[in-house]
Amino acid sequence: MRRHHPAFTLIELLIVLGIIAMLAAVVLALIEPQKHLADARDVVRLNDVNTIINALHEYIIDHRGSLPPTVPVGKEEEICRFGAQGCIGVVLDALVNDSYLPTIPIDPKASGLQTNYFLLLRPNGLLQVRAPGAERMALMKAVR
């Protein structure tokens, strides 16, 4: 007579492995969600910095080398939100009004009238847009 030894069948083993794999995927997704969110906000900032500087260059080309009137020379200033009344900083509403941008980009963690993006026309003629609010990337700016 054959004796039956208690053991797992192949199907039971596959079901258990499948459950373990699903639990591992959930745990990995939950590990350091703040890190993943910070990375996502930094990607938005990097995209915004490039969007602003590209719109400025398109404006300059279309206006025969002229900058929007409020661009600071030699002194970095914060960019104001579109249509912000009483904002002390760089007003780039002309970029929106002339359809270079749908609206002025805003840092994901910005509050108040500013965007938390800074603009500077260097003495050598290069434009610089900087996002100092970067969380995981050390330096986030575009210079052209």
Outline:
By secondary structure, the chain is an alpha+beta fold.
Task: Please describe what this structure looks like.
This protein is α+β, with helices and mostly antiparallel strands and 144 residues long. Helices cover 39% and strands 13% of the residues. The protein has one domain (35-143). It is built from three helices and four strands. The protein has a four-stranded antiparallel beta sheet with strand order 1-2-3-4, with helices on one face. A hairpin with a 5-residue loop joins strand 2 and strand 3 (127-130).
Please render the helix and strand layout as text.
Layout: H1 10-30, H2 33-62, E1 77-80, H3 93-97, E2 114-121, E3 127-130, E4 141-143
Antiparallel strand pairs: 1-2, 2-3, 3-4
Could you name the key traits of this structure?
13% strand; 3 helices; alpha+beta; 144 residues
Strands in their spatial order, largest beta sheet:
1-2-3-4
The first-to-last residue Cα distance is 86 Å
Mean pLDDT: 91
Counting structural domains, the number is: 1
Radius of gyration: 26 Å
Report the uncertain regions.
none
Task: Give the biggest sheet.
Answer: 4 strands, antiparallel
The H/E string reads HHEHEEE
**Estimated share of beta-strand residues:** 5-15%
Number of helices: 3
Would you tell me the structural class of the helices and strands? alpha+beta
Count of strand segments: 4
Helix content: 25-40%
Shape: rod-shaped
